[in-house]
Amino acid sequence: MNDPLDALLDHAFFVEATKIPTETMNFQLRRVLDNLGCLVAGYDQAGTSMALSLARRWSGAQEATVIGSIEKLAAPQAAFVNAVRARALDFCDVLSPGWHPSSSDVPVALAAAEMSGAGGEAVLAALAVGQDVGQRINRAAQANGFFYRGFDSNVLGLFSGAIIASRLLGLTRAQMSDAIGLAFDFGIGTFQHYQDKVLAVRISQGLVARHALEAVFLARAGISGPKRTLAGECGFFRLYGPAAPDLAVLGENLGERFLGEEATCVKLYPSCGVTLALTEALLAARGRGEIPFDQIAGLSLRISPAMNVICGGPYAPAETPEVDAQFNVRYVAANAILRGRATLDEFTASAATAPDIVAFAQRIDVAEEPAFGHFDQCEAIISNKDGARRVIPAQFGRGWPENPPTQDDLIAKFLQCAAFSGRPGWRDGDALIAAIKTLRSAASVEPLIAAFAA
């Protein structure tokens, strides 16, 4: 029962940390930095207390730490809580068409490393290999289409997470295969939670992390999993793929080039990745004095089809206004124009329901433009009271690989997250950053976890 996944699993099992390029390992360390910053900011946000309460009920062991405390839960449950917190503010990294790799990968890696005693280099290597395999599958599936037939593409995190945990927990090659098949058997999510703007967006990320670890534990206990995971009659590509996959891309430069950095967006604004270009273009135009917001008579947005599916709906903040704001182009545009900034403070429930912002957002017209091929391509058309009209185009927001952030950007983002957090002990972001920087040379993840519990 051969499957295209077999060659990827050989690679995932056998490749040594010393064979992974330094720049790849450095990128994985940046993933840890960004993820833990997002976790710090999202620590007490809506849905996180319920996730922790349930995880405590579901735990029957003390295996891994709930980051920010000394409390230990069963490893899948600790990873579940940490992933929900990292995803809570949608400030975490993203990879087209909506896979948030680090928000499940990093919690899985830290939990598995705590259990096994793995060192920092092994953790970064596992993260690199897991993301590489997940992105290869993603590229093959997206070769002839964009969305996964309505499924949340965080389903890819089941593959990457199971590989990460398999490496760190010392599974055999056969057990790793079973773990991937079992993880795939769980499935995960649909894009409907984005369109309906509900807390399931955050919780599903925790389920990815939890299920990846559970699949590894099942495989290690002797439970067999599906073998033809990618190309079987009911395999990944047939169930989720938008069209026939391009299997040739699965093995391109396998073991030589580790995919991930070339496609990962590290967000610098806390909203859906397709809105970053719009935010940046409007903030820049406002900063240059090109948007006399007190003279605006009307505003319309022309947006890509992908942008319209995820964030193009009316703006009517309801049960979870912060989620409504994160996934709505009307709010993003109104916020940038009226407030002139897009930080975590502008995406709280109170900010999302401010009457002037809501009123302005509801006046904005939105139209889909099929000719806009890139998912974040859009333009804002501003009409002034004097009849003047300005068109502001946007594409490749800062943070996407085409417009990458600097190291200073990442540090500034982490410090913003630390300042936003409700935990006084995390206000010293520089100390937390220093602990993260030493991860690669660390003999275990314990010093890093202890630094966040201080």
TrEMBL record:
InterPro entries per the UniProt record, alphabetical: MmgE/PrpD_sf (IPR036148), MmgE/PrpD_sf_1 (IPR042183), MmgE/PrpD_sf_2 (IPR042188), MmgE_PrpD (IPR005656), MmgE_PrpD_C (IPR045337), MmgE_PrpD_N (IPR045336)
SUPFAM superfamilies (UniProt xref): 2-methylcitrate dehydratase PrpD
Domain MmgE/PrpD C-terminal, first and last residues per copy: 269-419
Source domain of life: Bacteria
EC number: 4.1.1.6
Keywords attached to this entry: Lyase
A Pfam family assignment: MmgE_PrpD_C
Sequence similarity: Belongs to the PrpD family.
Protein name as it appears in the record: Aconitate decarboxylase
Organism: Bradyrhizobium algeriense
